[in-house]
# Entry
Amino acid sequence: MKLTNALLGEHAVIYELFDYLRDTILKSDDIQDIYGATAVVERLLLSHAQIEENLLFPRLEPHLGQMGPLAVMRAEHRQIDELFEAARRETDIDALRSVIGNLLELAFGHFQKEEQVLFAMARQHLDEATLTDLGDEWAVSRNVTINR
# Structure
């Protein structure tokens, strides 16, 4: 499996979690429910970003450089981290809802850039064998067995 396909599959799952978190901040008046839903999204989203930064970005840097699209992706990863940190510190439920709303908007836009631009660049600059090897590394990191 190519890494880009694996990451797209993760996006599908994370989109569902975005919807769950959005529903939680709209419907729940229990701040602990909101913290719990946020923690689940945070764990998966940060793990997803680490895979991109450890596997995909280093392979794209020789082709794209450290600036440009990769700099934007890394900056957005940091902004997402900062919003999760702000959410953990927030004690006012309305302010927490606002922080999470901003986080979801940023993360959704980030995913759209990956799907429409970054993954296309990966397919353009990295050959099938490299993307498949990276997919194998993804599988190991996720404890997934891929039979070829």
Remarks:
- The first helix runs from residue 3 to 27.
- The chain has one domain: 3-142.
- The chain has five helices and no strands.
- Residues 3 and 148 are 14 Å apart (CA to CA).
